[in-house]
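Not sure how to ask, but would you mind making up any protein sequence you like and the tokens describing how it folds?
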Amino acid sequence: QDMVAHHEQAVLMATLAMDRATPAVHALAQSILVSQSSEIGVMRGWLQLWGAPLVSPKPMAWMADSTDQLHGVTHPDMSQAGAPMPGMASPAELQKLWQARGKPFDILFMQLMTRHHEGGVMMASDVQNSAQLQAVRDTGRGMMFEQAQEIGLMAQLLRADSAAPLPS
């Protein structure tokens, strides 16, 4: 449920890139749009199969619990149910992205998406370590790998634009 919500924001940002980004970032955003939309479909399919609601009544509660148990540490932003998801862009950041075009869009998109993917990797890592079903663990592992690759690509593209990622 929470990863679907997280992916939905990445899909929103990638959709904005379709008519705002330069060709290099457009191609990256299109890849993110396709892969994360597909993953949303898989996760929603599981939720329907399990008879679970599509939206969590207690967002991020699972990660606070698994983080405490697995790592002996609580992420400050994960210490309570309903805490914000790691890496999510704020409404003000999304508004700024909405208004940007061309190279300024590219830089802000990659900064926000890098931070977003870092949060997604954190969530997927906990899933890989704590999910009961192998298929869910495998999906988490695939998300970690894919998003880590995209983080590396965005770091290279940001350096080429003399820009840096946002703090995590």
User: Anything to note?
Assistant: Residues 66-82 have pLDDT under 50 and may be disordered. The radius of gyration is 16 Å. The helical segments are 2-17, 23-49, 61-71, 91-99, 102-130, 134-160. The longest helix spans residues 102-130.
